[in-house]
Write a structure and sequence with these properties.
alpha+beta; transferase
Length: about 350
């Protein structure tokens, strides 16, 4: 648990390029690569864009705030600084991502005494740096999100939406926990990476998937998203035959956030006409195995909303801490709260 005993100095550093942010935060984020997947993977992607464009910000509108605790030792002149939180606002083609909060400590350590001043100074700095309309939602560990929501509403005047946008469990799968496929692929069906020939069908699935969220995509936006996923080879599909014996993509799984040793499953969707046939379970198992063995990842992470029947599917594949099984320290509850009077982006 973080120490509260030695009159720590709490400070915030501001970073407007991924290169600058990672120069101070990468080592800490890599030590908790699963939990930091959102912040780390998006920063690495932004850094690649910066390097490709060789122009610093490269037209991106990204912002990272790091909250630090610095303590002087009574026994030596050494000054120790620890990274407590990252508050990340990242750009994308659809109006930007939510505010992501990464905590270096588990929820059980995030007491009001520890949270209050740290979140207060971060929220105050954010309010100085960006229009309050930019923060349309905030996502992170439950105690951190509730603390930010209360402080941000007071500072900015932005009222939280009546119902949280997303309440979910974080889980992960490793080579040890991965379960073997329970059945063979039916004759005529296939599982593969999506290609350009699949663009229209993948775009339709992306659009259908988004309609169940607070951030629906239009037709052109869905095509743009599908195109990016296909070009980056981060989407896989389950293809079967429809009632007229025509090839049809029934299900998709995307993994759009990766770092050195961790990949995240970011979309799982089966179109309504093909539900109830276990296509998603087969595809999730196949993609998870591919990420672990073919891409050499140590673990694959995902979020599953509370009460979602898909939790049983992920549990059967080998994702830990689900369906009432014991939770490791990494399997925690996360929360997304939206704000009224803002400009919504997409994730």
């Amino acid at each position: 648990m973080p120490s509260l005993s030695s009159r720590p100095n709490i400070s915030v550093t501001v970073h407007t390029t991924a290169g600058d942010f990672l120069s101070v935060a990468l080592e800490t984020l890599m030590q908790k690569e699963e939990q930091s997947n959102i912040v780390l993977a998006l920063a690495l992607k932004a850094q690649r864009k910066e390097q490709e464009l060789s122009s610093g910000t490269g037209g991106q509108r990204n912002l990272w705030l790091c909250v630090w605790t610095t303590r002087a030792s009574h026994r030596s002149p050494t000054i120790r600084s620890s990274l407590d939180f990252v508050f990340a606002l990242n750009d994308n083609s659809f109006g930007g991502y939510p505010l992501f909060i990464w905590s270096n400590y588990p929820s059980g350590d995030l007491t009001p005494a520890f949270l209050e001043h740290r979140v207060q100074i971060a929220a105050t700095r954010l309010h100085q740096l960006i229009p309050s309309e930019r923060i349309f939602s905030v996502f992170g560990l439950v105690p951190a999100v509730w603390a930010f929501q209360a402080i941000w509403t007071h500072i900015s005047g932005k009222i939280p939406e009546a119902v949280p946008f997303y309440a979910a469990k974080f889980s992960y799968c490793t080579k040890v926990s991965l379960q073997p496929a329970t059945s063979r692929l039916p004759h005529g069906d296939s599982v593969r990476a999506a290609g350009m020939k699949d663009l229209d069908q993948v775009a339709m699935l992306c659009r259908e998937f988004s309609q169940d969220s607070e951030f629906p995509l239009g037709g052109e936006e869905s095509i743009m998203q599908a195109l990016d996923l296909i070009r980056e080879k981060r989407i896989w599909v389950y293809e079967t035959l429809d009632v007229r014996n025509r090839p049809r993509i029934a299900s998709m799984v995307a993994s759009s956030r990766t770092s050195a040793n961790v990949a995240a499953i970011t979309k799982v969707y089966t179109t309504p006409a093909f539900r109830g046939r276990h296509y998603a379970r087969y595809l999730v198992q196949w993609v998870t195995q591919h990420l672990l063995y073919n891409e050499g990842k140590d673990s694959v992470t995902l979020y599953v909303s509370h009460g979602n029947p898909a939790e049983k599917v992920y549990h059967q594949v080998g994702y830990v801490g689900l369906c009432g099984t014991p939770r490791s320290v990494m399997v925690e509850d996360w929360l997304e709260i939206g704000f009224q009077g803002t400009l919504r982006g997409h994730w």
